[in-house]
Amino acid sequence: MGYVGKLEEKFKAQELRKRGLSYREIILQVSVSKGTVSEWCKDIVLTKTQKNRLLKNKMYGQRIGSQVAAENKRQKRLLRTIKIFEESKNELGELKKRDRFLAGIAFYAGEGNKAGSAGFTNSDPKIIKFMMKWFKEFCKVPKARFRGAIWIHEGLDAEKSKEYWSKLTGISMNQFHKTYIAKNKTDSRKIRKNIHKYGVFAIRFSDSDKQRRIMGWISALVGGKIPSVH
Asked: What is the pLDDT of residues 30-77, one digit of tens each?
C-alpha cells in the first residue's frame, strides 16, 4: 500500500473512531493492525455516550466469552464422562448369573427392607427393573405376590406415575398400595434439587421365609461365605 493509500486508511480509521467505534470494529473496515489503529486514534477524545457504548459492548463481549468458555468446559466434561462410562462397561464385562446374584444382594443390603415384609425402594427405573428380575430369578417370587407402592410429591401426576411403574415392573395397578403424596413445604427455604417425575417406587411382597433367606445372603456376604448359584 502506498503513502496515499495509507493516509486514506488513517483518515478513515480516525473518522470511524470519532463516530465512537471500537478498535475491533474499525479493523474490520480498515486493513491494518489493532496497534496501528490505536496509534492513529490515541488523541481522539470520545463522548460520554460513546464511552458508555464501548463499555457495554466490552462487558457483553466478556459475558459471551465466559459463556463460551463455560460451554467448552461442559462439553469436555461430557466427553470425558462418556469415555469413562465406556471404559467402565469394558472393565465390568458381561454379567454372569452369580454376578447378578451378588449384585442383587448388595442392592438389597443398601435399599431393601430389613424387617417386616420383603421390599426394595428406589427412584432409578433401571435399578427397580433389575431388582424385579432378581426377585423373580433368585427368590422365585410369583408375579401375583408382588405389590407396588409410590411416594410422589404434590403437584406431580400420580396416576401417570402408577401407569409408568406398572408398565416397567409388570405389577398390575390393582396390586398397588395407596399412593403417598408428599406435601410441598411452602414455609421451607430448602430448595428441592432432585425432583423425581414418577416419584419413588417400592417393590413389596409378603413372604417371611424369603425375607429370612435374603437376610441370610446379606449376612453371608458380609462374612464372605456366599452359596453357589446354579
From this structure: 888 889 988 999 888 888 888 888 888 888 678 777 877 888 888 899
- DSSP character string of 148-190: EEEEEETTS-HHHHHHHHHHHH---GGGBPPPEEEPP-TT---
- The CATH number for 216's domain is 3.30.1330
H runs (alpha helix) in the chain: 3-18, 23-27, 34-41, 48-92, 97-111, 125-138, 158-169, 208-223
In a domain, 196, yes or no: yes
- The separation between CA 3 and the C-alpha centre of its own chain, rounded to angstroms, equals 61
Grid coordinates belonging to 24: 475491533
Most confident range (mean pLDDT) of 23-32, 75-84, 116-125, 126-135 is: 126-135
217 falls within a domain? yes
Give a yes or no: residue 1 inside a domain: no
Phi and psi at residue 75, in whole multiples of 5°? -65, -40
- 3-class SS of residue 93: coil
**Distance (Å, whole) CA 128 – CA 210:** 18
Number of domains in the chain: 1
Query: Which structural domain, as residue segments, surrounds residue 110?
Result: 97-223
Q: Residue 34 domain-assigned?
A: no
Grid cell 432378581 is found at 134
Residue written as cell 460451554? 71
